[in-house]
Amino acid sequence: MSGYLHSDPFDKGTLAVGTIHHIYYEQYGNPDGKPVLFLHGGPGGQTSKANTAYFNPKNYRVILLDQRGTGKSTPQTELRENTTPELVTDIESLRIHLKIPNWYLLFGGSWGSTLALLYSQEYPDKVGSLILRGVFTTRDAEVSWSRGTLGAANIFPEAWEAFVGFLPVEEQSDPVAAYYKRLTGADEGVRIAAAREWNRWDLSIGSLRIDPDGFLGLEDVAWSLKHALMEAHYAVHHFWLEEGQILRRENLEKIAHIPSMSSFSGGIALGSDFAL
C-alpha cells in the first residue's frame, strides 16, 4: 500500500512556547475533517509530508508538528526548556491554538508513542483514540536493550563494538553519558564524529536487513548532530520520567476508555524511527 496522496498544506505556521521556542506545524487534508495529530519519533526526528500518507484527505484534518529544537522549529538543537513535560504541554497548546475541541486521533511511533501516551494520561478527556507503533515507554529495560550489552549488542555485535569502540575503555560501560559529553562539548570535530557514530548504531539495529543507502544520511552534518544530540539529551536525563511511570496502573486507568491500536517491537531502538 502506497498510502494516500495529499495536496500541499492548507495551513502552516509557528507557535511560541516557553520563553525561547517556536514550534512549527502544518495542516493537510480536509479543514473540516476529523483532527489527527501525527507525533514523530526521536527525540530528534521531524515531520514531512510523507507522514500524511496514513490518512484519507477527504476525512481527516492532519496536523504535523515538529517538536522543540527539531525540524523547522526554532531555535535548532536548543536544549534549554526542552524536556518531556514541556513537549506534552506543547501538544495541548497547539490544540488550543488551532481551536480543536478534542483530538479525534493521536498517531505516534516510537518516541511519538511515548508522547501520545503521556499526553493522553495528562489530558484524557481531549483524546478520542490512539494508534501507536513500536511502543516505547522509556523503562530502563527498553533503553538497555538498545544501549546496553544484553540486547541489540548480541544481535549486531560488530556494530556494537564500533559504537562503544569510539569511546575510551573506561567510559564504555555508560555510552549514553559518554556520548552526551562529547555531543555537548566545545570541539566541533568531536561533536560531529560522535553524532555520526551514535546515529550509525541507530541505523545498524533498525532492521535485520540493512540498507546501505540508509547510512548516506550520516553525511548530513546538520541532521546527524540534531538527531544524536536530542536523543542523548533525553536519554541521559531519563526522559524526565520516573521508572515505569507510563505503565503504572493508576496512569493506565486514566486512558482505559480510549480506543487504541498498538504494535510493539521485540526490542526498541531508543527513540528511533528505524525501530518502527
Radius of gyration: 18 Å
Helix content: 25-40%
Write out the strand line-up for the largest beta sheet, numbering strands in chain order.
Answer: 1-2-4-3-5-6-7
Strand element count: 7
Using the alpha-carbon principal axes, give the shape: globular
Main beta-sheet annotation: 7 strands, mixed
Mean pLDDT: 93
Number of helices: 9
Structural class, by secondary structure, is alpha/beta
Low-confidence stretches: 266-276
SSE pattern: EEEEHEHEHHHHHHHE
Distance between the termini: 16 Å
The proportion of strand residues reads 5-15%
Overall description:
This protein has 276 residues and is α/β, with parallel strands linked by helices. The protein is 34% helix and 15% strand. It has nine helices and seven strands, in the order E-E-E-E-H-E-H-E-H-H-H-H-H-H-H-E. The chain has helices spanning 84-97, 111-122, 140-147, 152-155, 157-165, 175-183, 188-204, 221-236, 249-254; strands at 11-17, 21-29, 34-39, 60-66, 105-109, 130-133, 260-262. A seven-stranded mixed beta sheet has the order 1-2-4-3-5-6-7, covered by helices on one side. Helix 2 (111-122) links the parallel strand 5 (105-109) and strand 6. Helix 5 (157-165) runs antiparallel to helix 7 (188-204) and helix 6 crosses helix 8. The longest helix has 17 residues, at 188-204. Mean pLDDT is 93; it is low at 266-276.
